[in-house]
Amino acid sequence: MTSGRKPVVFCDFDGTITNNDNIVSIMKHFKPEGYEPIMKDTVERRISIREGVGRMFALFPSSMKEEITSFVLENAGIREGFAAFLDYLKSEQIEFYVTSGGIDFFVDPLLKPFGIPADHIYCNGSNFDSERIEITWPHPCKGSCHNDCGMCKVTVMDQFPTEQYYRILIGDSLTDFEGAKQADLVYSRSTLTEQCKKLGVFHVPFETFTDIQNDMRNKFKQEVL
Fold this sequence. Notes:
- This protein has 225 residues and is α/β, with parallel strands linked by helices.
- It contains ten helices and seven strands.
């Protein structure tokens, strides 16, 4: 299956590692004035993810950082089987990277208990020095992607050439689809499953990380045999 290539996993965060899409949850809980038309335009792809997320967080005063972080930590929920899945990957010497369109000030504290190295977590940044929250974009689109993703999953994956790596993507939404088209194996749920079906991209649906672990174990066992 891998043709001698080294397996590597790229995993979405919001709605994948966590049970909830945290940016949507933040907006719907705090309801900053003016967020709804921006969210609608973002979801319906009239504006880019980068523009939409940046504009929505700019509706918050920087003084709300701790309140927003606490809300996410209390409500995000980690998907079943995640810790055991990380242990499995470690035992198989398969590298794991988080590729998140989320923001560092809530992504990092949520992932801290799992001991994932900082250089294996790709997400958007944040600045609280001004009156309003500013989102920063340390991993923008380059080369083959021109979608103004903000945190470009394709750009991260491009650092792992397909001749050397067997690229496994795990995700749940449209933000994962460009990466899914380039992956060798896709584990999908929710909107990503629907999009893969619609456009004929091979995918394996999942609900928990236990599902993924069992499927990977079977696939790689067959290869060894």
